[in-house]
Amino acid sequence: MKYVLAVLVLALSAGADAASLERYKDFLNGTQSARAAFDQKVVDRNGKLVQETRGTFVFQRPGRFRWVYAKPADQVIVGDGQRVWIYDRQLNQVTVRKMSAALGSTPAALLAGSSGIEQSFVLSDAGAKDGLEWMDARPKDREAGFERVRMGFGEGGLQAMELTDNFGQTTFLRFSKLERNPKVNPNEFRFDPPKGADVLGEK
Exposed, middle or buried, 69 (CB in 10 Å: 0-12/13-18/19+)? Predict the structure, then answer.
C-alpha cells in the first residue's frame, strides 16, 4: 500500500470552473511534471488517528516520481519508470517492484493517465464538499487492495485525495506549495540501494 500512496500525486492541474470529471481530464492533459509538499493523516475505520506525517514529492510523467516522508515514517519512495523502490531508513530495507506490477488497477493508474482508465475504474462525480469538487474512482478489480479513491479539486487544481483500503483505513492527503510543470533533474528519479541495505522483491 505504501508504494500506492507515492503515486497518488502524479498530476496536478485543472480548470477552475469545470466539474470534477472534466477537471480530472484537464489535469491529465495539462501537467507533465509537478513539485509540492503534502500533509498526510491515516485513520482507522472508527475514525481514530493512526499516523500523521508530512513530506515532499516531485514527479514527471510517465512513471517517474520521488516521494519523501519526514519522520516518523522516514521513507523514500522512487519510481524510475521501470521499477518502484521503497526505502525504509529506520530498517535500512529496500523493497522493489516492477512498475507494471505496481500500477495496473491502482490509484497510480488514475494519475499516470494510462489509456485503459475507464476499463479499470468506475469514475463518477461525487459533488461538492469542504469547498472542493470531488471525483470518486472505484476499481473494477476486486483484488486491487482498496475500495475507492476520492480526488478533490479547487481553484488551484487537485488539492486533496482520500484513499480507503479494504480494511476500512482511510488516508487523507492535502497538497501545498505546488509548482506545476517545473524543470526536474533526472537524477531525482534514480535510486541506488544504500550499502548494507536489505533489498527485497522484484529486481
Answer: buried
* Cα–Cα distance measured from residue 169 to residue 158, given in angstroms and rounded to the nearest whole number: 22
State the DSSP H helix or E strand holding residue 107, giving kind and residue range, or none if neither. Answer: helix 107-112
Which run of H or of E encompasses 4? helix 2-6
List residues bridging with 160 in a β-sheet: 152, 174
The DSSP bridge partners found for residue 132 are: 129
Per-residue pLDDT at 203: 64
Residue 178, pLDDT > 70, answer yes
Output phi, psi for 33, to 5 deg.
-150, 160
H or E element at residue 38: strand 33-43
pLDDT tens-digit series, residues 16-28: 344 788 887 777 7
* CA pair distance 172, 24, nearest whole angstrom: 18
User: Kind and range of the H or E element at 101?
Assistant: helix 99-102
Residue type for position 20:
S
Is residue 171 within a helix (H) or strand (E), and if so which, with residue range?
Answer: strand 170-180
Coil, strand or helix at 196 = coil
Q: How many CA atoms lie within 13 A of 112 on its CB side?
A: 24
pLDDT reading at 11 higher than 80: no
Q: What's the pTM?
A: 0.76
